[in-house]
Amino acid sequence: MKKAYDFGLIGLGVMGRNFILNVADNGFTAYGNDLDEEKVNALREEGGDLDKVNATTDVATFVAALSKPRKIMMLVPAGKIVDAVIEGLLPHIDAGDILIDGGNSFFTDTDRREAYLSEKGIHFFGAGVSGGAKGARKGPSIMPGGSKEGYAAVQPIFEAVSAKYKGEPCVAYLGPKSAGNYVKMVHNGIEYGLMQLTSEIYDVLKKGGDFSNDELHRTYSNWNEGRLQSFLVEITSEIFEQEDPLGDGRLVDQILDKAKQKGTGKWTSQNAMDLGIPVPSIDIAVSMREISALKEERVRADALYDRPQVKKMDKKVLEKLSEEALYFAFIITYAQGLHQLADASKEYGYDVDIATIAKIWRAGCIIRAGLLADITEAFKEDASLPNLLLSPSFIEKVRSTVGAARKLVAYGAENGIPLPALSNSLTYFDAYTSSRLPLNVIQAQRDYFGSHTYERLDREGIFHTEWEA
């Protein structure tokens, strides 16, 4: 009788095919399933050895080929498709089997599915997978949360296929219920913020310093060799080099300035509002994608209003300010996302360790950056740290760069260059580090028109005033 396969995967699109091949490359046999026969055949052909990696379009054949307890991962689009796949599997799987949702499912859907499958004795957990198609093939960052027993059975496989940072696997069990999907959601929110920031700095260098694409490539490449070392800075440097395959010049200059989104950034922003945690750098990154979609309106509005004549800045001065401001804003964006994670952990009972999250983001994922090693150490030193800005190890990093952010935001405002994520990062910093804000006036207004009451600085209690007209 043929030996059963160690691992099963449903959904053989680019991500799924690459992930299952990664599993096979790391010493585990794997079996795939997809309704599309072309995708099944593509995997069989690319895998080469059918004893190591095989696939079928038939669910019953797929399940029967797996060793028990069956370890089945789904890499299908979030939403109703996940529920449909689960229902299709249930007649064929047994209590004790393990189902893994590797897509970007909304965290409350994961909670619902875990409760439903737990009643049937099925171990279920959500596992965020970050790194794109290349990461799935060569080593992603994986963020599992849910059934701890289920994860323990899959742990050797996930640790083998994940990215490695100085030999450490970029995967760890993060907590119960939907902890994994929630962490991946916030990861993507931070990703939105960092992407917006890198694009804004490109804009100010191009408009304020007339940087050519070659100069932009060199600038971002140099930054990637220093404290801004990160996947996003690295690929941005490479983007400026790419020739246009359909015409003359560089491809970046021909790409339409309308950014799309799949919703995870919006979910992060919405849930932060539900929790009462400010994440303005992420909020504005979501809004800027929405503004970018209004291309025709933007073109009309541009013709209606005069724009300031941009006063050019010395290239070396502008480059230095931009590097410092971007580093400052990266810190602020990570601080906001991690603050949200810490609060959500308490609210939803995840009990996640922020240092562990930062540690598994150090390689493999889209927001991987040298800065995450410092962030990991900051939360190792103080696991209860409410905000990265309160870490002694980050005070000088912020102090030495906030001045550049102020100068660049002012320069952008004066010259009509929109820098919303940088501006929001600076405003967040100024508000968070202010012991006194003007919200006393808002509380007075609320009490004036709605008798909503207020508290006082000089004594305990809740107060209301009959304001004189």
What does this molecule look like?
The chain is of the alpha/beta class and 469 residues long. It has 3 domains: 171 residues, NAD(P)-binding Rossmann-like Domain (Rossmann fold), CATH 3.40.50.720; 249 residues, N-(1-d-carboxylethyl)-l-norvaline Dehydrogenase, domain 2; 32 residues, 6-Phosphogluconate Dehydrogenase, domain 3 (Single alpha-helices involved in coiled-coils or other helix-helix interfaces). Helices cover 55% and strands 8% of the residues. The protein has 19 helices and 9 strands. The strands form 2 sheets. A 7-stranded mixed sheet has the order 3-2-1-4-5-6-7, with helices on both faces. A two-stranded antiparallel ribbon has the order 8-9. The chain is globular. The mean pLDDT is 95.
Q: Oligomeric form of this entry?
A: single chain
Helix content: 55-70%
The parts where pLDDT drops under 50 for at least 5 residues are none
Number of helices: 19
Q: Can you summarize the main beta sheet?
A: 7 strands, mixed
Residue fraction in strands: 5-15%
Number of strands: 9
CATH class of the largest domain: Mainly Alpha
CATH topology of the largest domain: N-(1-d-carboxylethyl)-l-norvaline Dehydrogenase, domain 2
Shape: globular
CATH architecture title of the largest domain: Orthogonal Bundle
> Superfamily at the CATH H level of the largest domain?
N-(1-d-carboxylethyl)-l-norvaline Dehydrogenase, domain 2
Cα-atom Rg, whole angstroms?
Answer: 25 Å
**Could you say which structural class the secondary elements and strand pairing correspond to?**
alpha/beta
What distance lies between the first and last C-alpha atoms, to the nearest angstrom?
Answer: 90 Å
Strand numbers in spatial order across the main sheet: 3-2-1-4-5-6-7
